[in-house]
């Protein structure tokens, strides 16, 4: 039992949590200008763009290919965004009306 005499008795106290003792103390908020933060973000983006330009190991054909891919993707997005859901449903229904009855799903019933 002599081994356990050095054990601290009482509630567990965690580091950093003052509990009731430091209830009156409040942390002061650091005042940072929003303009400063925005400038840092903009400057970091510019630096990243410059690094990309310096590290760009692509051929001119690869660059042109990627530009065309982005352009086509934007065209597809704008085309899909131009129609509402209702218009899409109407177009789909018109398409189904043009199909022959061969494509209809047959009615399955055990009683008839």
TrEMBL record:
Q: Which domain of life is it from?
A: Eukaryota
Name recorded for this polypeptide? Family with sequence similarity 32 member A
UniProt-listed InterPro entries: FAM32A (IPR013865)
Q: Where is the composition biased (Basic and acidic residues)?
A: 45-59
Which intervals of the chain are annotated as region Disordered? 1-60
Q: Which organism is it from?
A: Calidris pygmaea
Q: What Gene Ontology cellular component terms go with this record?
A: nucleolus
Q: Which family does it belong to?
A: Belongs to the FAM32 family.
* Pfam families per record: FAM32A
């Amino acid at each position: 039992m002599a081994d356990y005499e050095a054990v601290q008795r009482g509630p567990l106290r965690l580091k950093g949590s003052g509990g009731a003792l430091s209830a009156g103390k409040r942390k002061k908020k650091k005042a940072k200008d929003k303009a400063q933060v925005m400038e840092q973000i903009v400057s970091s983006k510019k630096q990243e763009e410059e690094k990309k330009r310096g590290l760009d190991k692509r051929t001119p054909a690869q660059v042109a290919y990627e530009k065309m891919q982005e352009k086509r993707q934007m065209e597809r997005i704008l085309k899909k965004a131009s129609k509402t859901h209702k218009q899409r449903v109407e177009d789909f229904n018109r398409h189904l009306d043009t199909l022959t009855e061969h494509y209809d799903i047959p009615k399955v019933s055990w009683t008839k």
